[in-house]
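User: My collaborator sent over this chain with a note saying "see what the structure looks like." That's all I know about it. Can you take a look?
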Amino acid sequence: MAGGSSPPPAPDPVKVAEAQTQSNKETSQFQAGINRADQYTPQGSTTWRIAGYWPDGSPKYESTQAYSPGEQNIYDLNNQARANVGQIAVDQSSRIGNMLGTPLDLSNENVSGYLMDLGRKRMDPMFDERWQRQEQDLANKGISMGSDAYGRARTSFDQSRNDAYNQLLLSGRAQGVQEMLAARNQPINETTALMSGSQVSQPSFVGNPQTGVANTDVAGIYNNNYNQQMAAYNAEQQGNNAMMGGLFGMGASALRFLPFSDARLKKDIVRTGETGPKGLGEVEWTYIWGGPRYRGYIAQEVLPLFPDAVHYSPEGFMALDYSRIV
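Assistant: Without extra context I'll predict from the sequence alone. Here is the result:
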């Protein structure tokens, strides 16, 4: 009879955690591998390879993208165009360096000189043509050069011309300032535009389809196994308790209700330090089927000293008649 069997040991949490971690690691590596699928399209391809390993032994992947021959040619041409634009921007920037090092003069004198230069280019030919017509008109009227009438006509014409220039200076300052600023900023804007056109574009990556793989519940397997062992142990103990109850029932008349004191039916035996007749050592114990703790002797130790006090059940377990231990 296996009445003295022990309950199964509980799972070691450290070993369970290590096993679960290893299972998670293997699952993640497998999942990474099936998710890194090579892709091939008319425009190009994306391929994966193991480029090395991490300190824990996990594979380290790298991805490579490649254009198809036609797309690669277009890509190379675009790169060359951007490089050319970038070189033009470099050349242009060297030319505007001196200009930016010279402060822009927006004083009244400088702006007026700028306006007068513009005015002469446009207004002087117009006034010269107008005077030629007026001078011809004077000649047709018989007014000759050097006469008083001719002098008055010339004076009036010159005053209108001066008034036109004065009006240009009075009303054209804002426009002149804007034109001077535009002339200064134009090469800067062109260089900026060239630089933006030569920017390096960010590479684009194609996403891979993700497949999820569930981790193995190693901890659950450990716990289920432990629970099954514990259930079997509890069932065994219930059977032992039922059998012990049967022993008490069957041997009640024969043993005169004597208590079992067989060491095989006891657990958690502790010496109390007390001694009885002929030096018998007193002990405390709990029966293997449970219940409270008892105090007394062990039948195997009583047998050589007081053999008449020891009685046997039909199954061979010893009980004690304490009245015979004197």
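A starting point for your reply to your collaborator: Residues 104 and 184 are 8 Å apart (CA to CA).
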